[in-house]
Design goal:
Blueprint lengths: L7 H9 L1 H7 L4 H9 L5 H8 L4 H11 L7 H12 L1 H31 L6 H20 L10 H20 L13 H22 L12 H95 L12
Helix pairs in contact: 1-7, 2-5, 4-5, 6-7, 7-8, 7-9, 8-10, 9-10
């Protein structure tokens, strides 16, 4: 049979106390059997927890089961813890008080802003809401009264937990150093809360590229989604531009390869032309040599002819020679 789930405040309390459970809680067989007897878990669930090899794995499995064990499981679990783990039980109760305050504050803020028809935009408005709504509500829950402008320790303790367990991790991460708040009274603590909220808003402005807090014209989730969409659009445009560049690069590579091919062809033609030029130069030289030899032979023949004519003339003979040989 499916049981109703725990109250969201109880589930959040278990989740936020996880580190405390992991550090100190030891789900022994005796402890688990006691939880079975109290109806917090079933025998099958006890066996499932026992099968885990390490203590921390057993704790994690137990905390996965508890939120589904009905609306009375949280209180029964707290009673069992009080017997052997009083410090964990105390931490659990303190965390539940914080969750309860937080839920009530959220409801009060929502009701008041709806009633006034305003949006939480600036620091002054947040201060007014805290002063007029949050502080009276927490004083009422803690059963304390205001005296000399300060509030009792019943208000200070959960407010310090909210700062150190929720706001500081939100601002600096889970590894952020806890702030020393022991010497601060309630008024100082409220100023600290406002300062942290303001710091968060300024960081949000910087991250969202807003010049001023007053530009929070929409709820923060919408502004974040808008900024993310802008970044997505920038990335998409850069991808398109990158594709264009790649296409141009491919085109240039193709053209470069073609130029290299043409250059190789031209080099081959030049080499062939040089070879032909060398051959032609050799033939021209050969022809020049033949012409020179022919000229030399012709000169010799002319000389011999002149000598022959001279000898014939001396002998009284007239030698008729064709003009081709003169």
């Amino acid at each position: 049979m499916l049981l109703p789930e725990m109250d969201p405040r109880e589930k959040a309390t278990l989740k936020n106390c996880l580190n405390c459970f992991l550090e100190d809680l030891d789900p022994t067989l005796t402890f688990l059997s006691q939880m079975v007897c109290s109806g917090v878990i079933t025998d099958d669930q006890k066996d499932r927890i026992e099968k885990q090899t390490t203590r921390q794995d057993k704790v994690i499995t137990l905390l996965e089961i508890l939120p589904r064990r009905g609306p009375r499981a949280f209180k029964k679990f707290a009673v069992i813890l009080r017997q052997d783990y009083s410090w964990i039980s105390e931490k659990l109760e303190q965390e539940y008080q914080v969750q309860d305050f937080t839920k009530r504050i959220e409801n009060a803020l929502e009701q008041r802003t709806k009633k006034m028809g305003e949006l939480i935009k600036d620091r002054d408005y947040i201060k007014r809401v805290i002063t007029e709504t949050v502080v009276p509500l927490m004083i009422e829950e803690c059963g304390t009264s205001v005296s000399s402008g300060a509030m009792g320790s019943g208000f200070d303790a959960p407010l310090k937990d909210i700062i150190n367990d929720h706001l500081i991790p939100l601002l600096n991460g889970n590894n952020g150093h806890r702030t020393h708040l022991d010497s601060m009274h309630s008024g100082m603590l409220l100023d600290k809360v406002v300062d942290i909220i303001q710091d968060l808003k300024e960081r949000c402005c910087k991250t969202l590229c807003l010049s001023d807090v007053t530009e929070f014209h929409s709820p923060l989730p919408i502004l974040i989604e808008t900024r993310l969409q802008e970044l997505r659009d920038i990335i998409t445009a850069m991808k398109k531009e990158n594709k264009k560049i790649k296409k141009m690069e491919e085109k240039l590579i193709t053209e470069n390869q073609k130029l290299k091919s043409d250059s190789s062809t031209q080099k081959a033609e030049i080499k062939k032309g040089k070879a032909e030029s060398v051959k032609q130069n050799s033939e021209i030289k050969k022809l020049k040599d033949q012409v020179q030899k022919t000229k030399s032979d012709n000169d010799k023949l002319k000389q011999e002819l002149a000598n022959l004519k001279e000898q014939m003339s001396k002998a009284g003979m007239d030698l008729q020679i064709s003009s081709d040989f003169t």
